[in-house]
Specification:
The complex is a heterodimer of chains A (about 675) and B (about 300). Chain A is an alpha+beta fold. In chain A, about 45% of the residues lie in helices and about 15% in strands. Chain B folds into 2 domains: about 190 residues, P-loop containing nucleotide triphosphate hydrolases (Rossmann fold), CATH 3.40.50.300; about 100 residues, Magnesium chelatase subunit I, C-Terminal domain (Helicase, Ruva Protein, domain 3, Orthogonal Bundle). In chain B, strand 6 and strand 7 form a beta hairpin. In chain B, helix 1 crosses helix 3, helix 8 crosses helix 10 and helix 9 packs parallel to helix 11. The longest helix of chain B is centred in the C-terminal third of the chain and has 17 residues. The chains are: A alpha+beta (about 675), B alpha/beta (about 300).
């Protein structure tokens, strides 16, 4: 039997919703209509088919509301906001069937009205009554929750408390029920906090999983989060390990790809061509350029290559790679290196020119450049049409235009570091402005993609060729690994600027960004690091021991695991999960004999010895708890049962005797709350 | 008065069936409620003795049929034989034309013979050669069967099962009871000395009094909910029929009469739920193999459906 709500509760929840959604008028009106039903002695005689039509009309109403919101979502993009609005309208949209239920002679819908496939069915299921009160109550609670007013949880708590107290099993007295409900309410508070944290944790885990699976560097295109709304989700997974020479302290910017054209939040590598490199000798050595004059800087890098293919994150001045066991290496015209035909895990050494990686202000070097890098100047100076005017104006205001590249870069760095701050929040763009303009002119806060894009485009506006680079910023030392590590969240974007005849790293992101993100690391990071480390050891062993041709068996293991889970789930389902007939709530006081004083004896016994299981016969229970042999008990039970179950009722004389027997046992009536 | 008759009968049977008060109570409840009884238990527990003891205690006609695999419907119902002297067919009535019928080892007969009993049990009449023969209001079948033996037996079909108001087992007596049996049957069986103890008028009174027992709407609803819950119980493919509700109500009235009550209590309904409902349930084979029994399914239903107090 379904839960019936106490009278007045629906009106209360409607008012709660009206208060939170600022729809006082509607809430009051709906509540009045609902609560007036008992005082109106007319009912609408609707046929079964007409009741079905009411449901159809409600469905049309919902469809209409969806259409309106969809149209609104086209004009005001975030769809989520509009979906919230739909939830907020729920009490209005669901009201017609509820009102019909109250004011129709049928008094209830049936399952068949709501499930179209069962509408003409004659089955018992289709004719099961379906009352909307509880669903409506929940819809109102949901609708009240989508606004940002305070006191939502306390309000919901009070309303639920009302239901629980009014519909408690009658063997619980109200102080006990109240205490229990309050305790549950108090426990619900940390639980809701925990759920909230769990949700954000799951979201981040999912985002991380997505990044790990699909977020390889694409040498032709890099979609940024510019213009997205919400908060950037970052993953803690370790993806790269780096061992420098002992005197080298980093940090290192390892570029995986670079791009030359920006358009609406996306960086593209236009006109990029890849040329195959020939290995140098047999030992997995590859040379990109002739050796630079002076000392080289050497790094040992360990990296996972998905399916043996991927972009290699390398210092921008790399000239030689050694011990790199890949079958093919291609050099892109913008300087990125793509490896293919390799194992799943590669360890190699990189040698680069010993220059300061962050390009603060370095002496001009006579570093020879490959011809490929000098092509496409117009692309390296191009500006997006939408933001062009803003960029020129800003470059002028900052005094960048016409300055030597090094001066322009220094001024721009000072501007970005002093006036902007790092943030992972993604605010909505201001009206009439692009995301980049909002960042530059209003928000002045963002993550590395904003800083890098702004730096590249402002430098270009000042006449300095610049490119957008993505890769990793490595600065964290992991004692576990005995190496510097780059996590997924260390993926970074920065600018490359043409200075003194060469491309230099120009990282304008405030340097505290790594510590900012590290502060957001979850509590289980140590565990996840341990897992990363062990799986890394395993992978190393695997890729050293197993032949390259053995292939990736993780898919097979995953499939076997899934199969096992399905099998176990099916066994458990077949064995354990059974549909139980619904238990009937204990009798209400309106039934004959409900005023019998013997209930007080039963309540007292339940207090003393625990409640009677609903399925246990009265006499057997009394015998089990040793109460049957108490003086007068058998007589009391007989009288009580006669009062309750004899249609002829219990004569007045015996009622008096029962009352006297009960009073003799537990004191006069009224001495005990019933 | 009626309670006293019930008590007399019960005491009378108890002299033969030592330590078996509960089965006697149920047997009498079925008889007073006008339903048939299936006794199912291991060999030697006293099924046949109980049936014979009841028949002898009542002043009613008694017939016993030993069901065998070669028993034919005509062996049960009777057969028309041509009488050459009178030049007509004459019906030789079979043993079913009686008041108390003991169908011993009923599952040993073939299904067609078992089926011959359907009409007799359901409608207290027999149709032979296009003629309808009434069996009278006292027609009462006590069948016995042995649940562990499967060789040469034919399980009763659901339709047949449904026509038994109650099915129950006797169970082994306790040590003292068994000792008492040894003593009582030392020289001769007490059954041989059993005499009728109530006359037919008293029996009619008993049945009339049972129908006068009052039942409140609340208890009827509880009873119907119990029966309906068996139809949705887990592991049960076929639940109990409305005939089961009727049988449960009638038997519960009889029990109320024996207990000296003028009305039926939920406890009486519960007491009879397993004997009245369990044999009518058909279990899902998988649930059966995983150890579910019909009695356990009924117990579960009793546990789930809250009884009014």
């Amino acid at each position: 039997m379904a839960l019936t709500l106490p009278p007045g509760l629906l009106a209360a929840v409607l008012l709660f919703w009206g208060w939170r959604a600022d729809l006082w008028f509607w809430a009051l009106l709906l509540a009045l209509i609902l609560e007036a039903a008992p005082y109106v002695n007319r009912r609408w005689a609707l046929s079964d088919r007409e009741l079905g039509r009411v449901v159809d009309l409600t469905a049309l109403l919902w469809l209409g509301a969806l259409g309106v919101l969809f149209a609104r979502a086209l004009a005001q993009p975030p769809l989520a906001t509009q979906l919230y609005a739909l939830a907020g309208w729920g009490p209005l949209l669901l009201f017609p069937p509820l009102a019909i239920q109250r004011y129709s002679t049928a008094g209830t819908f049936r399952v068949g009205h709501w499930v179209h496939g069962l509408r003409r069915s004659e089955s018992e299921r289709a004719h099961r009554p379906l009352r909307l009160d509880v669903a409506y109550f929940l819809a109102c609670l949901l609708a009240a929750g989508v606004t940002s007013r305070p006191f939502y949880l306390p309000g919901v708590g009070v309303l639920l408390l009302w239901v629980l107290l009014a519909r408690r099993p009658r063997r619980y007295r109200w102080p006990l029920a109240l205490t229990l409900a309050l305790a549950a309410g108090l426990a619900a508070w940390p639980a809701s906090q925990g759920l909230h944290r769990l949700q954000s944790g799951l979201e981040e885990t999912f985002a991380a999983w997505l990044q790990d699976r699909f977020a390889d560097f694409d040498p032709y295109r890099s979609s940024t989060a510019l213009g997205d709304i919400g908060s950037l989700k970052v993953s803690e997974r370790i993806v790269l390990r780096l061992k420098p020479t002992p005197d080298d302290r980093g940090p290192w910017l390892l570029r995986a790809a670079s791009y030359n054209t920006y358009f609406d939040g996306v960086w593209l590598a236009r006109g990029v061509r890849f040329a195959r490199l020939e290995p140098w000798g047999d030992g997995g050595e590859w040379r990109l350029h002739p050796p630079p004059p002076g000392e080289s800087r050497r790094l040992d890098i360990t990296l996972e290559l998905r399916r043996g293919t991927g972009m290699l994150p390398l210092p921008v001045d790399v000239w030689r790679l050694t011990r790199l066991p890949v079958g093919e290496l291609q050099l892109g015209s913008l300087g990125a290196l793509k490896a293919s035909d390799g194992p799943g895990l590669i360890e190699f050494a990189v040698e680069s020119a010993a220059v300061s990686p962050t390009g603060e202000s370095h002496p001009p070097t006579a570093f020879p450049r490959a011809e490929v890098d000098r092509e496409g100047w117009e692309l390296d100076l191009g500006l997006p049409r939408r933001e062009q005017a803003t960029l020129y104006r800003l470059a002028d205001d900052l005094g960048l235009t016409g300055q030597p590249p090094a001066v322009a870069a220094a001024r721009l760095r000072a501007f970005l570091r002093d006036e902007f701050r790092y943030s992972l929040d993604l605010p909505a763009p201001a009206a009439g402005r692009t995301a980049l303009e909002t960042f530059l002119l209003e928000a002045r806060a963002g993550h590395c993609e904003y800083f890098a894009t702004a730096a590249v485009l402002l430098l270009r506006a000042a006449g300095v060729p610049a490119r957008y680079a993505t890769g990793f910023s490595v600065s964290e030392y992991s004692p576990w690994e005995g190496a510097y590590v780059a996590r997924r969240r260390h993926a970074h974007a920065w600018a490359l600027v043409w200075l003194d005849g060469g491309w230099r790293d120009f990282d304008a992101t405030p340097p505290d960004w790594t510590s900012f993100e590290a502060a957001r690391a979850p509590w289980w990071q140590d565990l996840s690091d341990l897992w990363d480390w062990s799986s890394h050891r395993f992978n190393r062993w695997r890729w050293r021991e197993a032949s390259v041709a053995a292939g990736d068996r993780r898919g097979w293991w995953g499939a076997a695991g899934l199969l096992a889970v399905l099998l176990v789930g099916r066994l458990l389902h077949r064995r354990r999960v059974r549909r139980l007939p619904a238990a009937r709530p204990p009798p209400l006081r309106s039934q004959p004999g409900a005023e019998s004083p013997f209930y007080r004896v039963l309540e007292q016994l339940a207090d003393e010895r625990g409640p009677r299981p609903p399925g246990e016969p009265l006499e057997r229970w009394l015998r089990r708890i040793g109460a049957w042999d108490r003086p007068g008990m058998a007589d009391m039970v007989r009288w009580h049962q006669r009062w309750r179950f004899d249609p002829a009722g219990l004569p007045e004389e015996e009622r008096r005797r029962l009352a006297a027997a009960v009073a003799a046992r537990i004191g006069p009536a009224g001495a005990m709350e019933t | 008065m009626s309670r006293a008759i019930g008590q007399t009968l019960s005491d009378h049977l108890a002299t033969v069936m030592i330590g078996q008060r509960q089965p006697i109570r149920w047997l009498l409840a079925a008889f007073v409620g006008g339903g048939h009884v299936l006794l199912e238990d291991l060999p030697g527990t006293g099924k046949t003795t109980l049936a014979k003891a009841l028949a002898r205690s009542l002043t009613l006609e008694f017939q016993r049929i030993q069901f065998t695999p070669d028993l034919l419907p005509s062996d049960l119902l009777g057969v028309s034989i041509f009488d050459p002297q009178r030049q007509e067919f004459r019906l030789h009535r079979g043993p079913v034309f009686t008041q108390v019928l003991l169908a011993d080892e009923i599952n040993r007969a073939s299904p067609r013979t078992q089926a011959a009993l359907l009409e007799a049990m359901g409608e207290r009449q027999v149709s032979l050669d296009g003629q309808r023969y009434d069996l009278g209001e006292w027609f009462f079948v006590i069948a016995t069967q042995n649940p562990i033996e499967f060789h040469g037996t034919y399980p009763l079909p659901e339709a047949q099962m449904d026509r038994f108001a109650l099915r129950f087992a006797l169970g082994y007596p306790d040590l003292d009871g068994e000792l008492a049996i040894l003593t009582a049957q030392g020289d001769r069986h007490p059954l041989d000395a059993l005499q009728p103890c109530v006359d037919r008028a008293a029996l009619s009174d008993l049945r009339r009094a049972a129908t006068a027992i009052r039942v409140s709407t609340e208890v009827s609803r509880y009873l119907v909910e119990l029966v309906a819950a068996t139809r949705q119980a887990p592991g049960v493919t076929l639940g109990a029929s409305p005939r089961a509700s009727l049988a449960l109500l009638k038997s519960a009235r009889a029990l109320a009469l024996f207990d000296g009550l003028a009305f039926v209590t939920p406890d009486l309904v519960r007491e009879l739920a397993a004997p009245v409902l369990a044999h009518r349930l058909r279990l899902d084979p998988q649930a059966r193999f995983s150890g579910l029994t019909a009695e356990a399914a009924v117990e579960e239903v009793l546990r789930r459906v809250a009884a009014p107090v």
